[in-house]
Amino acid sequence: xxxxxxxxxxxxxxLLTATLRADGSSKFQGEHRWxxxxxxxxxxxxxxxxxMNNVDFVNSLKVRAGWGLTGNNGVGDYSSQNQFGxxxxxxxxxxxxxxxxxxAVQTTFAxxxxxxxxxxxxxxxxxxxxxxxxxxxxxxxxxxxxxDLLLWADMALSTGFGAVxxxxxxxxxxxxxxxxxxxxxxxxxxxWESSINISTNKNEILGLNDGQ
Length: 212
Prior knowledge:
Layout: E1 2-9, E2 14-24, E3 34-45, E4 58-72, E5 83-94, E6 99-108, E7 117-130, E8 135-147, E9 150-154, E10 163-167, E11 170-186, E12 191-199, E13 202-207
Antiparallel strand pairs: 1-2, 2-3, 3-4, 4-7, 5-6, 7-8, 8-11, 9-10, 11-12, 11-13
């Protein structure tokens, strides 16, 4: 399910958007089946304010901010349930002739509380255009944190499994993205436009399995 509300005021001078997603996945059980992911964002068109009327070299100026959650269900279809299979490497002796027969073996270790991996992200941005739109650009800062990572985590070998899919750990990503575009030369016979993009990202593993 998905719902969204948009609101603008004073000819798009002030903008607001709010959304809510509800995603269900049969990979998870019970109360963990549904994930709810809200988001909200807003923008202010500073360039449309009256106090900007005498700033001739600025054509447009807008600041943005947003926050939201997204989800990931990237595990096997039956990772939250025990599974068994018939295998020749787990035989048993049966019948008068004591013939070896294929036996049942557990192939998946159930993790009933397996749930959605969730990412929370905050964005701050600035859009501008100036000098009769000959120079324009955007500047963005993002801070993203993913929790309840769906990973194959180590298990005690006494369970019969070396690793199973679990919600473990968290990861952080943050950085800047800058884009600048300019009309360098604009004549009747020659036109030259250039753009440059610079981005940074700091990735940090905040935690993995217990004790890691």
